[in-house]
């Protein structure tokens, strides 16, 4: 029986502005939110806590040993974020239709 190995690329979690005309990221605006720490990152989520702060959470997993850490990255905005703030899972009335 032949063994197959998949090589995983480890990289930090980035954020960047989007060029809405070309539908691509603007490379000059890329910033690291969660640095690479020799572990796999997966299942990230962004939550707008206030108009001035957002949180990014991501799971971290080390292949050689099970360490299921949850990492938190905070983004502090210089201008208010116009996206809706978290409502604890409740859907705002305007979205319900």
Jot down its keywords.
mainly beta; 7 strands; 97 residues; 4% helix; two-stranded antiparallel ribbon; 1 helix; globular; three-stranded antiparallel beta sheet; disordered C terminus
Brief digest:
The protein is mainly beta and 97 residues long. The chain is built from one helix and seven strands, in the order E-E-E-E-E-E-E-H.
Describe this structure in words.
- The chain is mostly beta strands.
- It has one domain (13-82).
- Helices cover 4% and strands 40% of the residues.
- The protein has a 3-stranded antiparallel sheet with strand order 5-6-7, with no helix packed on it. It has a two-stranded antiparallel sheet with strand order 1-4.
- A hairpin with a 4-residue loop joins strand 2 (18-19) and strand 3 (24-25).
- The N and C termini lie far apart (56 Å).
Set down the secondary structure blueprint.
Layout: E1 13-15, E2 18-19, E3 24-25, E4 31-34, E5 40-50, E6 53-61, E7 69-76, H1 93-96
């Amino acid at each position: 029986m032949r063994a197959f190995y998949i090589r995983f690329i480890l990289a930090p979690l980035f954020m960047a502005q989007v060029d809405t005309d070309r539908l691509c990221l603007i490379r000059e605006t890329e910033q690291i939110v969660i640095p690479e720490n020799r572990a796999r990152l997966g299942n990230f989520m962004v939550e707008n806590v206030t108009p001035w702060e957002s949180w990014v959470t991501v799971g971290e997993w080390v292949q050689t040993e099970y360490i299921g850490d949850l990492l938190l990255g905070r983004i502090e905005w210089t201008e208010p974020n116009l996206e809706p703030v978290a409502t604890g899972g409740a859907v705002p009335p305007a979205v319900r239709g």
